UniProtKB/TrEMBL annotation:
<dbReference type="InterPro" id="IPR003115">
    <property type="entry name" value="ParB_N"/>
</dbReference>
<protein>
    <submittedName>
        <fullName>ParB/RepB/Spo0J family partition protein</fullName>
    </submittedName>
</protein>
<dbReference type="Pfam" id="PF02195">
    <property type="entry name" value="ParB_N"/>
</dbReference>
<feature type="domain" description="ParB-like N-terminal">
    <location>
        <begin position="86"/>
        <end position="181"/>
    </location>
</feature>
<dbReference type="InterPro" id="IPR050336">
    <property type="entry name" value="Chromosome_partition/occlusion"/>
</dbReference>
<dbReference type="InterPro" id="IPR036086">
    <property type="entry name" value="ParB/Sulfiredoxin_sf"/>
</dbReference>
Length: 368
């Protein structure tokens, strides 16, 4: 006896059998109501995925923009961070500073203690956690002394502008030079020494020291570059024998160079005299150099051993100027190597920096 097979009639909705590739149906419509829950979920996921991809693309574009902006700021040294003192080294660049301690460093330390460091140093990142100093030798020295003296952790790290790696050596030197050109205490001898150091470290034998000066001090005036070139010759002839080259004033340095160019043996005689005074201070060294340039009476002999035949030059000429000021009359007397101002005011009571700025502006105006 055979069993009968049961047949069930199943009715399918024609709309449910439509391809899934059909366009999305707005929610709430009659057709949407007929769609199954799986088709609705797939549609919603596709829309969410598209939105997420668009958001991620926008984020990537913004990150790229910020990364380029960060690199540009870093190249300019405008990204500032607190760098531990022990992570800053000074080996890549020859500093345009003498090795002796700056006597005015105490003023800078007092200013840092009172108001903090208003101008960060600049460093180049040379390795992970290692930075090379580019600008700010005095500021770094002040922080190191303050930390050693006080033990205050606030001085264990110094604000520093971070420069990107790989800057050309010439660019780093120019950054250091441009900052120090506006300083009141950088000497012509120190600038000349830096030019020689740059010539050596660039290993460009064909680079003349005059060309090095024109490159490094491009922002300085032509006359100032000329003075630096004269001092470069002074340092070539006497640099290794001078203990206080930074103390040599411009006029004395220029005159020494002129005299040594006229007398080829003078440099050797000066070196011999300097060698006999190993413990001399700056004043003693300047006195000796000035003695070399002084006109002597006929028959007299300088310490350098060269007979002097020229009579002393007359130095009696004077120029007197009276200036009417709102607070009184100022009398100025100018003579050879001297300018005197007589005015009813206590100049010693003025702020030292303000007075030095005024004097520097006065002397600079005479060079134009």
């Amino acid at each position: 006896m055979s069993k009968k097979r049961r047949v069930f009639d199943i009715e399918f909705d024609a709309a449910a059998l439509e391809p899934e590739t059909a366009a999305p149906v707005p929610a709430g419509t009659e057709t949407e109501a007929r769609r199954g829950p799986m088709a609705t979920a797939i549609g919603e996921n596709a829309a969410a995925l598209a939105d997420r991809q668009a958001a991620e693309a926008a984020i990537r574009a913004e990150n790229d923009r910020l990364a380029h902006a960060f690199v540009a700021l870093k190249k300019s040294g405008l990204i500032v961070d607190l760098i531990p003192l022990e992570q800053v080294r000074m080996t890549k660049l020859t500093r345009d500073r003498v090795a002796k301690r700056d006597p005015e460093l105490d003023e800078l330390k007092a200013s840092i203690q009172a108001v903090g460091l208003s101008n960060p140093i600049r460093v180049e990142e040379v390795d992970d956690g290692v930075y090379e100093l580019v600008q700010g030798f005095r500021r770094l020295s002040a922080f190191r002394e303050l930390h050693a003296e006080t033990g205050d952790p606030a001085y264990a790290r110094i604000p520093a502008g971070l420069m990107a790696r790989g800057a050309r050596l010439a660019k780093l030197y120019q950054r250091m030079v441009d900052e120090n050109l506006i300083r009141r205490d950088i000497s012509f001898a120190e600038m000349a020494q830096l030019a020689w150091a740059y010539k050596r470290e660039e290993t460009q034998e064909e680079l003349d020291v005059g060309e090095a000066i024109d490159l490094l001090y491009a922002s300085a005036g032509r006359q100032k570059r000329s003075y630096i070139k004269h001092f470069a010759q002074l340092m070539r002839l006497l640099g290794n024998d001078l203990a206080h080259a930074e103390a040599i004033p411009r006029a004395l340095g220029l005159q020494l160079v002129k005299m040594m160019e006229e007398d080829a043996g003078l440099a050797g005689r000066i070196r011999a005299v300097l060698a006999n005074m190993p413990d001399r201070d700056a004043d003693a060294e300047l006195a000796l150099l000035r003695d070399v340039t002084k006109p002597a009476k006929p028959g007299a002999v300088h310490e350098t051993g060269k007979p002097a035949t020229k009579p002393p030059a007359a130095t009696t000429a004077k120029t007197t100027i009276r200036l009417a000021r709102p607070d009184g009359l100022a009398k100025c007397v100018a003579s050879d190597g001297r300018v005197e101002v007589q005015f009813a005011r206590d100049f010693s009571a003025l702020d030292r920096r303000k007075l030095e700025q005024a004097l520097r502006a006065f002397l600079d105006s005479l060079e134009v």
